[in-house]
Every structure is written in structure tokens, then in C-alpha cells.
Design brief:
Phosphorylase Kinase, domain 1; globular; 20% strand; six-stranded mixed sheet; binds magnesium ion; binds adenosine-5'-diphosphate; alpha+beta; five-stranded antiparallel sheet; 362 residues
Length: 362
């Protein structure tokens, strides 16, 4: 058995069964209800959409271990796809930016028509449902000590530039004409959407890279905008950077705490330069060039706005689920440290400031 991934939520292995077939074994490390929800969601997506019937590998069996070290834990087996995930392609030195970009764009073109379909599943003009999603995540953030201390400030200084804080940006966005225009139109949410096109969940098979597969839907949402799937894709850059600990943060504010002083951070990425260049090449424009990037081109104006709103939701959820109450100091130096939630927050804020500007433009 080979370990493919191991986290607090799941352990994922690759193995051969008695028939000699290669399979995935995904074991839940949490309460059974979460993996059950995932299994049911995969089945539902495959049943409801021809697209996912072809794209999500089949679950061949599931059950609960009756013996051994994993006794009582729930698992499922899924067909193994021999290939590389988008994240692995980026990490592989052999692959150049241009080649990955081609696959990335191909993937987007194939998926967007499907996401448009998904929006029709549950027609809703209940903008409140949607705003509710934001407020819920925001509320959770406010209960997290390290984060709530940052949230209280009007500005944060990141890499020597001052940024307006989250609540101020959201207020402006939710008041803007662009947002209200969407509000007037019919609004679409879905309870039938994958919601998780993260780079680790898209597999390009070795034999035929165009026949990509998608695993691991996010079954935790009751409803969401289907464009959230794309938000998770674009979020791959900060997500991987955080997950592989390829960053560190610098701040002097642990020792000094003058009352009205702006809290200031420096964010440093730690990737091998060639890998960072690829992430940058693929993803940068979605964060820093909001008026002309590939999604701006592919999507209608309204869809593009919806996509960016799901980006906000994706970061808020990300900061929440990756929150660590404690920072890890590096080399016993109180200025240099790791903290996943704070890193995501600091990655998010410059983008959110750009987005606020975008919402305020005509
Ligand atoms: N069916 C599969 N075929 C090939 N690789 C897979 C398959 N399922 C999972 N993997 C590998 O295992 C990793 C983790 O699996 P995933 O289901 O995404 O777990 P998690 O929910 O922890 O993200 C994936 O990023 C991928 O590399
Ligand atoms: Mg995954």
C-alpha cells in the first residue's frame, strides 16, 4: 500500500486488490457521517450529470473496518486513475509553464458549460441564501482569536503596502452597482455541484491527458453557486503554498503592541523558484489583473462577478478550516513564523482590495 495523502480528515492509499486491479482506499479519520456524506454526494453527482458520470471515478465498494488498528473507521474504494494531478504537474520539473497552461485552459473550456448547466438545478432569487453563506463564514472567523484581532483593524500593512480590511471591502462590494445588478436578476444556487476543482482533485491520465478526471467533491455545502468549483481551482496557489508549508511570515508585532499601531506583516514564499514561477504564471492574473484574465474572457460579465464572489467565500472558508490557534516560530526567532490561517488571510487581502476596486469601476 502506498500513502497518497494523510490528513486529520482522511488517509488515502493506493493498493492492488485480489483481482490485481489498482484501487484507491480512502479512510475517514473523523466521524462516519462525513465520509458517508461524501460517498452519497459522489453517487448523486454521477447519477444526475452525464459529465460527472464520466469524470468522477467509480466507487467500487465501501464499508467499516471490523478489525485491526482502523476498527470502526469507515472507508471507500475507488478506481485508481494513473496520471498526475494539476498540482503534481506544476511540481514536476519536466513540465514547462506553457504546457500546463494549455491543459489548464482546456480544462476550463470543458468545465464551464457544465457549470452553467448546474446553475439551473435550483432556481432561486433568494439572495439572502447567498449572503447568508458569507455571513456564516465571517461569523466563524470572528470567533477565532488570532484572526479576530486582525479583523478589528481598518487596515493591515502587508509587504509594506496598506490594505483595507475584509469587512470594509465586503461592505463596499455588497453596496456596489455591480453587485446590486446581480441581485435584481434571477439568482442561481445549486445543491448539485462539485464545488471543488482544486489542483489536487483534477487528474490528467498519462495515456490521454485530455480525458481528465475529477475526484473529491466538497459535500459540505447545502447550496452554493456552481462557480465555486472554479474558485477552488484558482485557490490552488495559496492552498498548495499553505499545505506544503512553502511560505513564512514576518512580523514585529508580537513584541510591540502600541495601541493604534498598524499591524504589519511580510509574506515570503519558499517554493523552489521554478515551481513558484509556474504557479505565478498560471494563477497570478486572477488575483492581480481582474480586468483581463482568461476567466474574464470566457465568462459573461455577470458570471465573472459571481465567480469572484465565490472566491471571497472560498477564502473565508479556507481561513476558517485551516485556522491554527498557535503560531509556529522559526529558528526560535519571534519575528519569523508559520500560521496557515494568517497566511491565507494575508494572501486574500490584496486580492480582495483589487476586487473592491473592480466592483467600484463602471
Ligand atoms: N481515484 C484516484 N485516482 C488517482 N489518484 C487519486 C484518486 N483519489 C485520490 N487520489 C490521490 O490522492 C490525493 C488525495 O485524495 P482526495 O480524495 O483528494 O483526498 P482529500 O479529501 O484529503 O483531498 C489526490 O490529490 C490524488 O493525488
Ligand atoms: Mg482532494
Amino acid at each position: 500500500m502506498i500513502v497518497l495523502k494523510n490528513s486529520e480528515k482522511y488517509s488515502v492509499f493506493k493498493l492492488k486488490n485480489r483481482k490485481g486491479e489498482t484501487l484507491i482506499l480512502k479512510i475517514s479519520n473523523r466521524q462516519t457521517k462525513f465520509i458517508n456524506r461524501e460517498i452519497n454526494y459522489i453517487k448523486k453527482l454521477k447519477k444526475n450529470w452525464l459529465f460527472y458520470k464520466n469524470k468522477i471515478p467509480k466507487i467500487s465498494s465501501h464499508g467499516v473496518f471490523s478489525n485491526g488498528i482502523n476498527k470502526g473507521k469507515k472507508y471507500y474504494h475507488q478506481k485508481y486513475i494513473a496520471g498526475q494531478t494539476l498540482t503534481q504537474l506544476i511540481h514536476n520539473k519536466k513540465n514547462k509553464s506553457k504546457k500546463i497552461e494549455k491543459l489548464f485552459k482546456f480544462f476550463l473550456k470543458e468545465c464551464i458549460p457544465q457549470l452553467r448547466n448546474e446553475t439551473n438545478v435550483k432556481k432561486s432569487n433568494l439572495l439572502e441564501d447567498y449572503k447568508e453563506l458569507f455571513f456564516k463564514e465571517n461569523k466563524k472567523l470572528n470567533n477565532k482569536n488570532l484572526i479576530s484581532n486582525l479583523l478589528k483593524k481598518k487596515h493591515l500593512l502587508i509587504n509594506n503596502k496598506s490594505y483595507l480590511n475584509i469587512s470594509y471591502c465586503l461592505r463596499t462590494i455588497f453596496k456596489s452597482k455591480k453587485f446590486l445588478k446581480i441581485k435584481q436578476g434571477e439568482f442561481f444556487l445549486s445543491n448539485n455541484s462539485h464545488c471543488n476543482f482544486h489542483g489536487g482533485n483534477i487528474i490528467f491520465p498519462n495515456q490521454n491527458q485530455k480525458n481528465f478526471k475529477i475526484i473529491d467533491p466538497d459535500s459540505s455545502w447545502k447550496v452554493n453557486d456552481p462557480f465555486f468549483s472554479l474558485a477552488r481551482l484558482i485557490y490552488t496557489f495559496p492552498h498548495d503554498t499553505m499545505e506544503y508549508d512553502q511560505y513564512f511570515l514576518i512580523s514585529k508585532n508580537f513584541s510591540k503592541a502600541a495601541k493604534n499601531e498598524t499591524i504589519s506583516f511580510n509574506v515570503r514564499l519558499n517554493w523552489t523558484k521554478s515551481i513558484e514561477k509556474k504557479y505565478d504564471y498560471i494563477f497570478r492574473d486572477f488575483y492581480f489583473n481582474l480586468n483581463s484574465n482568461y476567466l474574464r474572457k470566457l465568462l459573461t460579465k455577470e458570471e465573472y462577478i459571481r465567480f469572484n464572489l465565490t472566491m471571497i467565500l472560498c477564502f473565508l472558508r479556507g481561513i476558517n478550516t485551516n485556522y491554527e490557534p498557535k503560531v509556529t516560530f522559526l529558528n526560535n526567532n519571534s519575528n519569523h513564523f508559520l500560521n496557515k490561517g494568517i497566511f491565507l488571510y494575508l494572501f486574500f487581502l490584496p486580492y480582495l482590495n483589487n476586487l473592491t476596486k473592480y466592483f467600484n469601476e463602471k
